[in-house]
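Honest question from a wet-lab person: if I give you the sequences of every part of a complex, can you actually get the arrangement of the whole thing, not just the pieces? Trying it with mine:
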Amino acid sequence: MLGLNNKDLMLFAIVIAITLLAPVILNPFPVESDLAQFNAGYPDLMQRFVIFGIFAIGFNILFGLTGYLSFGHAAFLGVGSYAGVWMMKLLTMNVVPAIIVSVIFAGLFSLLVGFISLRRSGIYFSILTLAFAQMSFSLAYSVLTPITNGETGLQLSLNDPRILGVSQTADGSIPMTNFFGIAMRDGFELSMGGWLFTFNAGYYLCAAVMLIAFYVSIRIFRSPFGVMLKAVKSNQQRMLYTGLNSRPYTLAAFVISGMYAGLAGGLMVAMDPLAGAERMQWTASGEVVLMTILGGTGTLIGPVLGSGLIKYLENIFSKINDNILHQWFSFLPDGLEDFVVAIVYPFIGKGWHLTLGIVFMLVVIFLPGGIVEGGQRIGRLFRRKPPEDRNNTTTAAAPSAAE
Amino acid sequence: MGILEVKGVNKRFGGLKALNDVNLDIQEGSVHAIIGPNGAGKSTLLNCFVGRLEPDTGSVMFDGQSLLGIQPYRINQIGVSRVFQTPEIFADLKLLENVMIPAFARRDGSFKVNGWKSVGEEREIRDEAMTMLAELGMEAKADHVAGQLSRGDKRRLELAMCLVQKPKLLLLDEPTAGMARADTNNTIDLLKQIAKRGITMVVIEHDMHVVFSLADRISVLAQGTVIVEDVPGNIKGNPKVQEAYLGGAHL
Amino acid sequence: MDAIILQVLNGLDKGSAYALIALGLTLIFGTLGVVNFAHGALFMLGAFCAVTLNAILRLSTETIDPSRTDFLGNPLKVKTPYVENWFGPEIGGAMIEWSVPLAIVFAIPVMVAVGIATERGLIKYFYKRPHADQILVTFGLAIVLQEIIKYFFGANPIPTPAPDAFIGSFDFGALVGMEAGTIIYPYWRLVYFAFAAIVIGAVFAFLQYTTFGMVVRAGMADRETVGLLGINIDKRFTIMFAIAACVAGLAGVMYAPINSPNYHMGMDFLVLSFVVVVVGGMGSLPGAVAAGFLLGILESFASMSQVVNLLPGINQIIIYLVAIIILLTRPRGLLGRKGVMEG
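Yes, you can. This is the full assembly:
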């Protein structure tokens, strides 16, 4: 079905189910309980989960398959965001044209950057992409201010022309983003017992786009084109003497992943019509690298898991403060309680970046296949199966030859 | 007129003259061996055929087309495949994928975004690759990762990757180097079969046993110059060849 | 003429920092073959050595001075730093004032320790892994170091003044016999430049005139052969990493008065330093130093108002632009060897 084999179909079905039920699954704790703060099922965060999921899925098509490590992908996300906001300013508040234009602009920009950067490989490629991204970031802050609105960021205003819409609503406010009339912040709340679930239109739009993006990535991974990209990572020399020109393959992968980044940027502004230059900074590019690797480079589901994990840590884990910790450890004797809290505190709450850094290092050192490989290892442990089945996940995690 | 014509090829590396006015005329369907002592320029010559090196002067014509100044992948696309001294394979991929890639390259050319069909749906290519693996006795390992193969199997895989392209000209750089005698004999048999299909082969080899059981003609290269070219029977007793091998030739 | 000299001088301090960081990066890359994305973090650690020493020296006791009162009429509480108690106000005060130069003494053992710990504990397991893995793990390390500093020192920049003697500017123009007042240059920046020159000179002298340095240079030229000669490289690798860490740290210590240290200053410098290394030529020490100064000066020229008026925004991107052009036209960089790290 859908041109997928059974295993992939199963995976896709699970992803669809989880994505559609996310508002419920992510809100496992009743509103009144102490644990309610760990609920992640609110629209804003769920949107971020799937949007960054798209970003990471796209990045994985480049890095996971070809082994080219780009440190500049946030630039494409940023370009997509700016293009999207401009579309809303000039044309309509319907998000569809905005998203399409985001993808197109990001694609064009990545074509330019990729065309130049891919003339080199290995670390030189990484540094070239880094240089391009930093350049875009600096320009967005300085010369391009008429387009980007500099430090303030590009936002909608009451006197935007908006050809196919109104500049302002009847009550004099900025119109809301919508999908053919359905406002992105529309939705309904469902109260069941102590639980409260929010079903939000914007989230479901993002989720649908993410599922399509995920599906496309499965097809690419399983296609002859995907095999060619893996060949780029494995042995470019052999490719060359097998009659294959590796550069257009890598460029195609680069542009596709750039378009995914643009799509993510477009969705971001569709949810919240604001674009700032900080989205293009290289640390933002570093974040998508972290996501992909934490989840599992070269695996289908890894990037989605990685982005979910990081966004959860960033938004939920980071809210834990020392009061909450003291509550948790209140069963301990006083002195010990303080001691434990003092030990734990630097790693959670505002210190979540520290935990992230440590976990990331541990993954790179011990678990090159990320969460997915970890899951597989645990699975194997339970099934007591000899570890001979090297499926494509572990294959992709093998050291790359594309340096 | 031969399928591969090499005329007056010269190549210098700094002060060293690696190839000195090399002429070769290789007939279609023949097995042509190039032998010579270490450093005679054999590999340099082969590299000039596949676009890895550019001769300083001279011409290399394949099937009426010049091979000079064009990219290696284009040379392959017009029908020249090469087996390397150390096997160049896609070590992270499965055997089947390794063989399907060159088959795709032959069908789809040097670049095609075939991103929607799944590999499994490409029945023809898949069957072709499986047949090729079966011919070389590796169909049972089709789902193994190539990097785990033994060295001998890697060589055979690389050969399968070249053969699946149905090349007009197959270049082999020491196809039996580092092999045990039994393996070597297997490889000779295999290459003989390939030769029967009418694929022209150019073999660089150290092992005289291999050379004399395979080659229709032999060129002896010494210090960048072809000193003798003849049928195998006349090579053995040739004093010039003995001189080159016994070291009398180097100054 | 004076405008040109002024821009050259302005470029020197940043160029010095670039050169020092790039020098360390190149040492690590050339000898160990490791791409160290945590090098900026080492620079940042150095700067915080200065901050820490400054804070330690200012640790004070509080005493009540009955002879004086505050504005409410209560006896005045006077804070006296311990060092002033121990060494007397003169020496103690001088120590606080000179905390940044003193931090050099403090930073050397700290940075050496950090360097050895990093190399032994982490980097050595990555010699044989792909460069992408090295980049990733050191990137992770950089985040960790940065966050540790943030935990202890907070997110805001911490002003760390230079000694009074070097605060302020002098008239460079008058010094070289030009019209007074045309070239005004802060003292500390000159100190920084001189310091960088000394450190760079010391590193080169060390590599040039010691047996150790000879082995290292041989190793940079041809790692395999040196390994085959049976020379114990492991220990030398550790030492080289420690030296490189130290150079980055010292660059950071002295940079503290120029830009108040904050926890992410390392990342900012890292990107530029990598660009510098690439422009200079991966693996070339003179290339790294030359490119560091060159790009520093180029950057300051690009910020001249005449240039900015002509090409708006050029000051923001000049370094990246140069790097892109160099990488595309001369992949090995200005002074690099061919084929280093080409994949």
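Two things worth pointing out. Chain B has two domains: 1-79+167-251, 88-166. Residues 12 and 112 of chain B are 38 Å apart (CA to CA).
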